[in-house]
Write a structure and sequence with these properties.
By secondary structure, the chain is an alpha+beta fold. Helices cover 23% and strands 27% of the residues.
Length: 586
């Protein structure tokens, strides 16, 4: 078996060498009649005109016509025979000269060397892997659509769907508007131009925080504009109409204030625009969207948010916003939460004990055993990812949107054992979706919660635990978001991204299960063990062990036996908590 594989590798290398020699001779114009070989000359034609004898500039020019994946590419495909031939050709394929020429071939505009250790390779790979997959919910169109990537875009960094279009920000700071990306007309993608440049010099942008894209009428853009007197360029916030792309409002800040992120919070008539500075302070100002269309100028007051006033030595790294709540993630990995509605507070914490309606900006600390790297905030639930790749969910669980396998609300962060090292996490209205790695370097989308309206493709009845959705996911997918109308998967691979997660130290204590209201701790611990078992026989064995080991009253023991029979008869390896809820109340 080993000799067979070695022979195949040798044959593959010989084929790659012949193909490269053929390309080299064609490119250099050296193809001619084969010279007659003398009787004493034992050299073959490949040795007489070796590709390695060509100048380095010519070799780099030839290699630039190969596919991007042949030179290392996104790092998710196996090496091709061209780079496997020898060390010299591998170095030529991965040289910055070859990547610079490939970037010129892939970009419509003059190539832009992005910052990083390998600027030209990063630019070429970003342009090669950029893309967008849109999975509509309901309606006539069931399959996914792929809007054409703008040739002017240098990769994709962020996307936000609006009422009619999809807004995409690239790594060069250009904001694009993809026309009618959700419901394309027949033959629409065959047209030459189906996108428009909305703004340049963009740092960040946002829209209405609600999950319904029909409510996203205005687009708030944080950009940098050149000063008129030749001084430093100040930051400004511009407001555009998402339908026509017309700018209707602009506010300019002092050049000393440098911002990097903005989010929206609150109703339309009393918007709170949250602005995060480069040094980690959070400012806010009030905006009335009903007066934006009126052609007049007025002054607004920029105030420091209470989370920055109360913790001046704690810089904020990122902001997540929902219609009535906001989460502030610090550089140390702590999460502060603001809640502005009593109903949302009750859904998130299960009580109104500490809610103060007169001071909604009072930040509340979420306790987690490790540093938090990312936060996703929904209407009535939230998700956290720590430095070890563990996922914690908190809030309302009426539809199973927490993915814990039950429909019991969580007033504290509860770990989801079935998820590890996710690439992206999104919390929607009554459901949650996760972009997770799969086998062989692929990607898959997992979802839980309410499946009404096609929000969980392949699971119309929904699911209380995370299940694999029937969605097309390219191997270069990097982020995702979901609205009432569809699921959007953003594709763009950045070679400068470093692994964000660390390995859990050996002997580290496990996260204790969060006790649920009205459920005994023994039942809660048992349910966590059942959720960690991926197979049906493992859960049955756990139940059999629990029936004889747990010190439960006869009534609860009887309901456990009923749950065991239910699992044995169930065709799906999903265990409901209704039996244990009944046993706890008995």
């Amino acid at each position: 078996m080993g000799d067979q594989q070695a022979a195949q590798r040798l044959q593959c290398r010989r084929q790659g060498l012949r193909h490269l020699a053929h390309l080299a001779l064609n490119e250099a114009g050296l193809r001619s009649k084969r010279p007659p070989r003398s009787p004493g000359d034992k050299k073959g034609p490949a040795e007489a005109a070796s590709i390695q004898s060509l100048p380095p500039e010519l070799l780099e020019h030839i290699m630039s016509f190969l596919p991007v994946s042949a030179g290392g590419g996104p790092g998710r495909t196996p090496p091709t025979p061209y780079a496997q031939t020898c060390h010299t050709l591998y170095c030529v394929c991965d040289s910055e000269g070859a990547w610079r020429r490939a970037c010129r071939r892939l970009c419509a505009l003059p190539p832009l060397a992005l910052p990083g250790a390998r600027p030209w390779k990063r630019a070429a790979v970003l342009n090669y892997t950029k893309g967008l997959v849109v999975q509509p919910f309901g309606g006539r169109q069931r399959g996914p659509s792929r809007p054409p990537a703008p040739a002017l875009a240098h990769g994709y960094r962020k996307l936000v769907p609006t009422r009619e279009h999809v807004l995409v920000l690239d790594h060069a700071g250009t904001l694009f508007s993809l026309r009618h990306a959700l419901t394309p007309a027949p033959g629409q993608w065959r047209r030459a131009a189906r996108y428009a440049v909305l703004c340049r010099g963009t740092k960040d942008f946002t829209t209405d925080p609600r999950s319904d894209a029909a409510c996203r009428k205005y687009v708030y853009v944080l950009a940098t504009r050149a000063g008129g007197d030749g001084g430093p360029a100040p930051d400004c916030v511009e407001v555009y109409l998402q339908g026509s792309g017309q700018r209707i409002f602009k506010m300019t800040f002092h050049p000393a204030l440098r911002f990097r992120q903005l989010r929206l919070l609150g109703p339309e008539t009393a918007r709170a625009l949250l602005l995060l500075t480069e040094d980690g302070r959070v400012y806010s100002l009030s905006v009335d969207e009903s007066q934006l269309a009126q052609p007049r100028s007025y002054t607004v007051q920029l105030a420091l948010r209470k989370v920055s006033r109360g913790h001046p030595g704690t810089p904020i790294a990122a902001i997540a916003a929902a219609p009535h709540s906001a989460a502030f993630l610090t550089e140390q990995g702590t999460v502060y939460l603001e809640v502005h509605a009593p109903g949302v507070y009750r859904d998130l914490f299960g009580t109104l004990h500490a809610y103060d309606p007169h001071d909604p900006q009072m930040p509340l600390v979420l306790s987690l055993p490790a540093k938090v790297l990312s936060c996703a905030l929904g209407s009535n639930h939230l998700g956290l990812v720590d430095e070890f790749g563990r996922v914690f969910m908190q809030g309302s669980n009426r539809h199973g949107q927490l993915g814990t396998g039950d429909k019991i609300d969580r007033g504290e962060p509860a770990q989801v054992p079935s998820l590890a090292r996710p690439l992206a996490l999104w919390c929607g209205l009554n459901h949650s979706v996760v972009l997770a790695p799969s086998g062989a370097g692929g990607r898959e989308v997992l979802g839980c919660g309410c499946g009404a309206g096609g929000r969980l493709p392949g699971w119309p009845k929904g699911s209380a635990s995370f299940v694999c959705l029937q969605v097309e996911v390219p191997p270069s997918a990097s982020s995702l978001c979901s609205t009432r109308d569809g699921l959007y998967v953003l594709c763009s691979y950045d070679i400068e991204e470093q692994p964000a997660f660390r390995d859990l130290p050996p002997g580290a204590p496990a996260v204790p299960p969060v006790p649920s209201p009205g459920v005994p701790p023994a039942c809660t611990a048992l349910l966590v063990q059942l959720q960690s078992c991926p197979t049906l026989p493992g859960r049955v064995a756990k139940l059999q062990e629990a029936v004889g080991a747990l010190p439960l009253p006869p009534a609860q023991r009887h309901f456990l036996c009923q749950g065991l029979e239910l699992v044995q008869r169930s065709p799906e390896p999903v265990l409901s908590k209704s039996t244990f809820i009944s046993s706890s109340h008995q």
